[in-house]
Amino acid sequence: MLRNLLDRLHPAFGKGGKLERFYPLFEMADTFLYTPADVTKNASHVRDAMDLKRMMSLVVVALGPCFFMAMHNTGYQANLAIAGELGTATEGWRESLLDLLGVGHDPKSFIDNFLLGALYFVPIYFVTVVAGGLWELVFSLVRRHEINEGFLVTSALFPLTLPPTIPLWQVAIGISFGVVIGKEIFGGTGRNFLNPALTARAFLYFAYPGEISGMAVWTAADGFSGATPLGALATAQAGETVTLLTEYSWWDCFIGYVQGSMGETSTLACLFGAAVLVATGVGSWRIMAGIVLGALVTSLALKIGGSSALSALPPWWHFVIGGFAFGTVFMATDPVSAAMTETGRWWYGVLIGVMTVLIRVINPAFPEGIMLAILFGNTMAPLIDYYVIQSNIKRRMARYGA
Description:
The chain is mainly α. It is built from 19 helices and no strands. The longest helix has 34 residues, at 110-143.
């Protein structure tokens, strides 16, 4: 019945129809629900069964555990602070709704934690979809092309990189910057050289540092300040460790029950996503392995003779704190802004891994590291591919005596 309804509406939105100008909006709904009916008019060149819609959908599936942790851990950290009387419940519509549902603030209750976290995460996600989706619609109407599925992933990644307390108007501004400046001005999906979600996050980081960094933004409880492991290490003295500063064990950081951006805290959740992306061929294991290798070698090198808490940090700690795992699996492997050649992906990954540790250790003013490292890698990816291709050409010419 739904298919028949869409078929009846198609002439009105098709070429020459009364609503032709709004065809991108109709096409978006149609292709979201069904496989596109369009076929190529000329000879087609099919590499495999992977198309843009399937690729983006698989990324969203891989993000499932991160979505879960974004809601569960956000509520858990807030309820833990409230139960320990280190903070108080935030007044407003959230508390009224929780009271109406009969939900309390017990950190041992899965329902209490998940619902409270959802009341912070879902509005941020909703604002991201609406604000960013409107810009996608505007550009599609002006350029008269379909709305690509690329925003499906951008809208899923961006909220996961934010703290729960960020004002919603800043969320709208951030995603607007990411979509317009990070992607659309370069031509849209497939033509952007920067990751749009990471561009949006970087804009907020520098434009509104008070709402996206510091100690008071990571827990959805009034009057509570708690540093992330990286934030604590950035101001620590030599000899101090993550466990000493925050009481978090390595396993706490690996599972994700720590302070931090809503969807970035769990390395375990990111590993599940990595398995899905690598198994389906959507994410490059070479990039992921390159980042880990680059971070491993650099952290070990800086550890020799290091005098600060961050320089003395073992590599296995670098892998589980901050957004390292999330950036490695979901941000750096963006097929548009990453290196395209197989050899180039190794160099691209190693570059990001090296830069991440260097930024964390050498300049603790930016303790996260992975965000700026990936954006730097994005700008260098075309150059890396160029030299890899030129090297291949020279090697083949020498082999065949050309």
